[in-house]
Amino acid sequence: MAFFGTAGVLSALAALLFWAGLLPGRSTHDPNTPLFGRGAETQPGGRPRLRRLFAVVPFLAVLALVADQLGTAEQTVPSAPEGHDVTSTPAPEPEPAQPPAAASPSEVALAPSVSPPETAPAPAAPPQTVAPLPQAPPPQPTEPDGHREPVVWLAVAPDGHSILSASTDRTIKLWDIEGKRLIRTLGIHKDMARTALFLPDGARALTAGDDGEILLRQLSDGAVLHVFSSGQNGGVNKLAISADGKRAVSGHDTGRVIVWDVEKGSVLYVMPGHDWSISGVAVSPDGTRAISGSIEGTLKLWDIGTGKQLRSWHGHERGPYGVVFTADGHHLITGSGDYTIKLWDLDTFKEVRRLEGHSGTVYALALSADGKRLLSGSLDGTARLWDMEPGGETALFDSRSGPVYAVVFAADGTVLTGGYDRTIRDWPAAGGDGVVLFAGAPD
Q: Taking a C-beta distance cutoff of 8 angstroms, is the pair 437, 414 a contact?
């Protein structure tokens, strides 16, 4: 450090002497003299010996610095093994961290002996019970002429020998109950088919669907005799007809209710009383009044002769999908998305009785001809039979194959259902297992 400090001081002193002109090499010409010709020449001056002395000092300092660096490198670089050329040996890969140094023999002798821990025996496997997979339900029978999508409506002919079915596959089919065969596909709608009703003459039918059309069809060949189009009033969710077949009432997804003159093929009234889509409609036994229900639970009573609203009330927490008048015309039965079935007095508009038991939307209702039994179909996959007098459940029909969308009484008193599995089933009135009357089409 002393050497390099002395060399630095001497170098600084040499620089000062150089700028003072005491050392040779600095030009002494007048700055105003042009830098060309003789005037541009540098005039030597100063003391040459002193200049040489000061020039040697920086050189010695640089030489000492280089020697010091070489000595440091020799101390840090390990010597190569004998017989190896250092210049040709590649740099070694970095070594992993070394483990702690082994203890000396004396330390080993002083350390207490520790026996290795005993290995515990592996525990025996506990007993195991494996639950078997549930048995797959037996495959449903199929037939090529069956419906390809859910059956959402059933109606029995006045003579009891045939039934009509409507499906979301857009088709309307006519079936022979006794012969257990398809008579014909009566027709196809442009969109989902919703309703199919026999007219009292047994020779014609009205069918309706989401395409907004109500078609008067001839049963003998399916020919369309008249088209009732709802136009901008929307698709037909539900349809009902009077006992004499002269009037039809349709409920639409726009919330409108329309009264049609079937004989004249004309529109009588368009009634825009509901704010929500219609879920159910029914016509009274005497053909003078109609009930409509919308999906938010409102019920409205209409005068078919004048098209005026007679009453409106909130009957359910959700839409009443099944709606049917009792034979006396003074009571109404509704089944709803709130899972309940209610009996209403239409003179006082009060709830008389409530039937509970379904765990899903009550989607369809049918009343027996004598008015003593009520049949309900639900999205919970069951149909139930109720005794209207005490108001209790008397039979349960479990499809075990999805929602039940359509229910009806056959002429012999048995129960017919249609649903999600595309089939039409026949059930004994006392309850128990049903049989597939008409199978759906293959998948």
A: no
Which of 302, 301, 298, 303 lies closest to 320, judged by CA? 298
Residues 147 and 437: their CA atoms lie apart, in Å, by 13
> Nearest 10 degrees: CA dihedral of 273, 274, 277, 283?
-60
Amino acid (1-letter code) at residue 40: A
Look at residues 195, 190, 160 and name the one whose alpha carbon lies nearest to residue 175: 160
Residue 170 and residue 196: Cα distance in Å, rounded? 12
**Burial annotation 323-346 (CB, 10 A radius, 16+ → b, else e):** bbbbeeeebbbbbbbbbbbbbbeb
Alpha-carbon span 87 to 98, nearest angstrom: 27
pTM for the model: 0.70
Half-sphere exposure of 242 (CA within 13 A, CB side): 18
pLDDT per position as a tens digit, 236-290: 999 999 999 999 999 999 999 999 999 999 999 999 989 999 999 999 999 999 9
